[in-house]
Design a protein that fits this description.
With 338 residues, this protein is α/β, with parallel strands linked by helices. It has a single domain, classed as 2-enoyl-CoA Hydratase, Chain A, domain 1 (Alpha-Beta Complex). Helices cover 46% and strands 14% of the residues. Strands 1, 2, 3, 4, 5, 6, 7 and 8 form an eight-stranded mixed beta sheet that branches. The longest helix is centred in the N-terminal third of the chain and has 20 residues.
Length: 338
């Protein structure tokens, strides 16, 4: 039986949830653009990943067409916010939060994975490593970025860059936004599960501070593979779960019709995860969500990242590693009963 401490109270930042979507002309234009992308994707690819992306886009179009006001009423509405097509992606945050970003490519084994961004940058004149998932905005970008779903070479690239940064004493900032690791046959043949598992083991040993920011979707092992951090931050309209609501619904109910209920029972919102002590801090977003004001979303995130770096860089290395390993051991501690 899992041993779990008492839950925390709700996150201190809360109460900034605003309006999800309305029937404004801008939102209707976004809906039309998404419908165009659906048609293009149907013509361009018939892969499983494309079909799943098409279904997600259809759900987003339906939400944009429907007027929804007030704070999110359930976890499913938070999922729609996390997937909003205008929400800032990893490269947007890199541009707004960092300077002198230099991207590195390739895993030195197979290929370069465009769904994974990795490189060096400056955060307020402090050298850091930045890694993260990258989705695409239009159809061409979505296909190029594989809808933010990473292949094993992407995880190996991320680890290569993180270990290089650790060698030179550069803190690591990981940006999480993916529906999950790519489930294709080729990915499995190249060792998808092994690549994720190896990252989990090696990230625990990185000899520099690691800060994780869940800013969109945190999907299953595809997210966790670069999310072993000393501090795990989560934007208030992001989601983080072992499985997507649609996949959970298809397993338990044999269809996607119960995705709203699945989202509720998965406890995937920032408030739920903060109470269960799975994330360390909930980062506020602009009114109505990060998609309404990218710059403000970044500026709300900046001081929290700065404080984390200041706090973690003061720790002796032995204490940093001990705290990191103890943090994740607490998430999977068990007791036996007779």
């Amino acid at each position: 039986m899992r041993k779990q401490g008492p839950p925390r109270p709700g996150p201190p930042q809360g109460g900034n949830y605003g309006v999800i979507m309305g029937n404004s002309a801008d939102e209707q234009a976004v809906a039309k653009e998404l419908e165009k992308q659906i048609s293009e994707l149907q013509r361009a690819s018939d892969s499983t990943a494309s079909q799943e992306e098409i279904e997600r886009l259809r759900q987003q179009v339906a939400a944009l067409r429907q007027k929804v006001s007030g704070p999110p009423q359930d976890a499913w509405e938070r999922v729609l916010l996390a997937r909003h097509p205008q929400r800032p992606y990893t490269l947007d945050y890199i541009q707004m939060l960092f300077t002198d970003f230099m991207e590195l490519h390739g895993d030195r084994r197979f290929a370069d994975d465009a769904a994974m961004i990795a490189g060096f940058a400056q955060f307020e004149d402090r050298p850091v490593v930045v890694i993260g998932h990258q989705k695409g905005r239009d159809t061409k970008q979505k296909l190029h970025r594989n809808f933010g779903m990473v292949n094993p070479e992407g995880y190996r690239k991320a680890l290569r860059v993180m270990q290089l940064g650790s060698k030179f004493g550069m803190p690591i900032i990981s940006l999480i936004d993916t529906p999950g690791a790519y489930p294709g046959i080729g990915a499995e043949e190249r060792g998808q599960a092994e690549a994720i598992a190896y990252n989990l083991k090696e990230m625990c040993k990185l000899q520099v501070p690691v800060i994780v920011i869940v800013h969109g979707e945190g999907g299953s092992g595809g997210a966790l593979a670069i999310a072993i951090g000393d501090e795990v931050l989560m934007q208030e309209n992001a989601v983080y779960s072992v499985i997507s609501p649609e996949s959970c619904s298809s397993i338990l109910w044999r269809d996607w019709d119960h995705k709203q209920e699945a989202a509720r029972v998965l406890k995937l919102t920032a408030e739920d995860l903060y109470r269960m002590q799975l994330v360390d801090e909930v980062v506020p977003e602009p009114r109505r969500g990060a998609h309404m004001n990218h710059a403000q979303a970044a500026e709300l995130l900046r001081p929290i990242v700065r404080a984390c770096l200041d706090r973690l860089t003061k720790l002796p290395l032995a204490e940093l590693l001990q705290r990191r390993q103890a943090k994740f051991r607490r998430l999977a501690s068990f007791v036996s009963e007779t």
